[in-house]
Design a protein that fits this description.
7 helices
Length: about 160
C-alpha cells in the first residue's frame, strides 16, 4: 500500500476514538507521513510532543539503569576479589557498550553525567549490599569512579 492510500485509509477510518488510542504504530506512521508531506496542520501535535518527551525520559532512565548495573558490578569486582568471574566482565562490558550506544545516539545525555553517576552510585550501593551481603557502609559516600573510568573498557578497580 503506498503512502497516499495509507493516509486516505487512516483518515477514513478515524472515528470517535483517536488513532493514537486505537493503534499507536499506525498513528506513528500516519503522523510521520503527514510531516514528510508538509501537512503540518493535520498532525497530532499534542501527542507527538508528549511522545518526544517520553522518548527523552526513557533514554535517560535507560542510561541511569545501565550505570547502576555497571557501578554495582565494578563494586563487586573491587570488594569481592575472590569471587571475580568472566560473567562479571561480560556484564561490565555489555553495560559499557550499551551506555556508549545511548550516548552516541543522544550525546546531550552526557551533560550532567557526573550527577547521574552519583545518583546511581546510591542505588548501586543498595544493590551491592543485597547481592553480596556486604554492608554498603564500607563504601565511600560518593562514587569512587569517574565517568571516564566507567567508560574505559580497560578500567577495572583493584
Amino acid at each position: 500500500m503506498d503512502n497516499q492510500n495509507t493516509t486516505m485509509q487512516i483518515t477514513n477510518t478515524t472515528t470517535e476514538q483517536s488513532l493514537y488510542e486505537r493503534d499507536f504504530y499506525q498513528w506513528g506512521l500516519y503522523n510521520a507521513e503527514l510531516l514528510k508531506q508538509g501537512r503540518l496542520s493535520e498532525i497530532d501535535i499534542e501527542n507527538i510532543a508528549e511522545e518526544l518527551e517520553s522518548i527523552s525520559r526513557r533514554d535517560k532512565r535507560e542510561l541511569a539503569s545501565r550505570l547502576e548495573r555497571l557501578i554495582t558490578n565494578l563494586l563487586k569486582w573491587q570488594y569481592q576479589q575472590n569471587k571475580r568471574s568472566t560473567s562479571w566482565i561480560k556484564t561490565i562490558n555489555t553495560q559499557r557498550r550499551e551506555i556508549n550506544r545511548l550516548l552516541k545516539d543522544s550525546p546531550s545525555l552526557k551533560y550532567g553525567i557526573e550527577v547521574i553517576v552519583n545518583e546511581e552510585f546510591k542505588n548501586s550501593s543498595v544493590s551491592f549490599q543485597k547481592e553480596t551481603s556486604i554492608s554498603k557502609n564500607i563504601l565511600p559516600i560518593e562514587c569512587p569512579y569517574t565517568f571516564e573510568q566507567l567508560s574505559d573498557y580497560d578500567f577495572l578497580p583493584e
